[in-house]
């Protein structure tokens, strides 16, 4: 087969470009000035030259030359009022940027195309802009954006009598909507219609989509091979074709054939500068060496995983806005999930210490990578260097930089395994494995939360108020709670932990995937003792981010004459908010939060902001100048990825702001820096949000860490107003008042014990929901 992939410009597509330019793209020479006509012709010629350039030799250099020519074409088309030429040029700029992996630039030009077409009231141009955006979102697997944009484009095409790219649009959305065996006849009919109309490019795209569905959703690999090979026979193989064949042959346990197609994809991707295809190919070749051939070729696996991760790091940094980076991180997470197992398989060859350290290092590279870049104000678009055998050295260096006296317990949740690394104050690294199916683990975590009465927080249905022990699907069952808690202890806590780490020690947890929802503090240890009674527990998204905030905190604490400043916000005049599916209401006032804020403000010696004074504008103005920030108000975390940026803290509305300080607003404000030593989010669900494999929980805590906060106190579920007030008072009393100057984590441990001993609040629902994230 040809190694030149259809991600470049095919002859069929080139013909489409010329048709668009010369049939509808130029103004009538009789109706415009002579110079306009010349500019229009020059613009059309430049588009033709650009497409020919990348069609003849598709390479990073030719793509860049094509982009330059197309940008000049846009300017000339605007001067010559050649609207069709302008829209066509904008589409191809977006297309070429997508090929070279610059998602941010591709989205920019796709959005510009859409806006321009709207200004011209050109419905087919609007559809073309939506198609350009849909292609980029399909690349980075942003289904939340792809589906609505793709469906809108199909509607416009239908109303306008059809679009040349209509079947390609169907292929983009089909895996999201038509991924069961009963949907196949509909897709076959669509393919037949495309064939009848002579739409070869659309037909190939539909065949590739069907192959993807058979592989990734139905696991019918023979059928997948049949449809991808149809594309080969039509002589229009694209990245999806070759990648799909490689994936199907992996499913068929035919590693030689899989190897051939992935190596073909790797070579072609490098030729055209297609970073995503290159990364996919490298990661799968590593998987073939590691999982598919017997005996495993571990040196091969490590080399290809390493190269794939290096490419993935560059793609992530070119993905543009944060949520695009989060989405791409999910795509790359499989590389970082498999890579550590390959390192651990080398234990006998290189020794346990080197294998454990190398496995820990490569896992950390893929953990919260987008957040790490934000925390470090990391602006480079380049890829990380290949590690090679230096991964073990990197792991040892990282462990040496962890907080003195602290132990860490980092998790990696796989399809059938939970893997954990325990680093001890002695800098020894130990590895533990527990066999459990992911679905079983998820069900166990959900059952524990439900038994606590905390599962309501997963759906985002409650706000701060009166917690009820009957919130879950059933009334709490002490026996079932103990069974579930003990099962989780057996799956997540090393048997020898208490022997290796003395009581009262600092234990930092790095949860992964669904473990971000587990209240580790309540897991039983010995007898009636829990993990939270035994250790001062805190959390971090990754060990690398922990090192960063600890280093910053240590430097700040050494600064002479540094007097702490504080901002306390409690019970603002409440805004109107979306609290459920189409449900909007004005949030209720919180007497307990008001009293809590008054007490905290008095303790810290500052005036609090409440009522109308706690306006969103005023709070945003002050946040960057406070060492301690305490919010006692409503909060809501949306569990769905498409709503992640809408999770909010409730503040008072004012003339310019709606009173909802959202994750999106925090992340998008480039001028906002919040270098607080501690931010207390004393509301509901402030530790929650969509839980991602690579990036962790995408919510308020992540947004504040990205903006420079060194530590946060956040909640795992909807909290009780009175119990939370007591917990916060006890926390500050211990942290600022105890003679032994406890750390923040130890102060929280003592505060939780105080609340637990109060008969009214003895149930874990009242005291176990808050956790400390970050520096101590």
How is this structure best described in words?
The chain has about 775 residues and is of the alpha/beta class. Helices cover about 55% and strands about 10% of the residues. Strands 9-6-10-14-17-18 form a 6-stranded mixed sheet, with helices on both faces. It has a 5-stranded mixed sheet with strand order 3-2-1-4-5. It is globular, with a radius of gyration of 28 Å. The relative contact order is 0.06. Residues about 1-10, about 15-25, about 455-460 and about 465-475 have low confidence and may be disordered.
Attribute tags:
single chain, 776 residues, alpha/beta, six-stranded mixed β-sheet, five-stranded mixed β-sheet, 33 helices, globular, disordered N terminus
